[in-house]
Amino acid sequence: MEMMNMKHNRRGSMPSKGPNAFNSGGAGVCMMSNAWKDLQHPSFINFISSFLSANSFRLNFVPIAPDLIFNCGGLSVAFIFATNWDCNDMSLTFGRVQKLKSQFAHLYVVVTLPTKEQNQSFVRSYFKYGMEFGKPIFVPVQDLEMGFEKIVKIALARGVCKQQDAICKLRAEKERSVQGMDVFLRVVTSIPSIDNHDANALNQAIGSIEAIAKASKEVILKNTDLSADKADKIARFFRDPKFYLSPKII
Fold it and tell me: Could you tell me the pTM of the whole model?
């Protein structure tokens, strides 16, 4: 196919990719469809290869259904990249969209529309083929370079969001763990004569408050360094209402 002249020096590498390029040896992996590659002008493939390399992506050519799949930050993002919009035959593109949107949770469709006629054709076809807004997201662009840059930006942004979401979940889990341990210490140290050291020993050897409540004096003595007197008080605390309702004596 004919392709507009590529201005390789006009655009360089992308801006910062996020947290240490996903804390790995690169930003991620780009998988390109063998069939899609064969339809593109060699100079465009060379541009893609150089652009990905400059932005720390590995490029693999594989037999996949989408045109491109990016894996960034543990998230896979699929793309249909329509580089040659045919105003007289749009059924193939929209047919692929309908099929792939049910197979990929994160699918984008990038369409090159350099002329007003092509843009109008796309708008008419979008509604003609019953596309649902945002499912998937269509990204119209004016030229091939811009289209591929958009693709990389989208993939990087989704990867960063995925990583930040994972970090937020880890922080939340850590906070819940700390709060849970705080509750554990408060409950266990409310037992007469039991201090933080004893509570930590019980947590490591016996486990949860429920497990401690079920443990006998003998089990506590066998698995911790607590004295017989403390083990007896713990066992009584969870079994004798008169004991656990009495004021704590330090």
Answer: 0.58
Tokens at 158, concatenated: 């989704």
CA-to-CA distance for 103 and 135, rounded, in angstroms? 12
Q: In this predicted model, what pLDDT tens digit does every residue of 106-152 receive, in sequence order?
A: 999 999 999 999 989 898 888 888 888 888 999 999 999 999 999 99
Burial of 187 (0-12, 13-18, 19+ CB in 10 A): middle
Query: Is 6:147 a contact under the CB 8 Å cutoff?
Result: no
Query: Between vectors from CA 34 to CA 32 and to CA 5, what angle results, nearest 5°?
Result: 75
Using CA atoms, how far apart are residues 209 and 195, in angstroms rounded to an integer? 15
C-alpha closest to that of 141 among 83, 74, 59, 62 = 83
Q: What is the DSSP string of 221-248?
A: HHHS---HHHHHHHHHHTT-HHHHTSPP
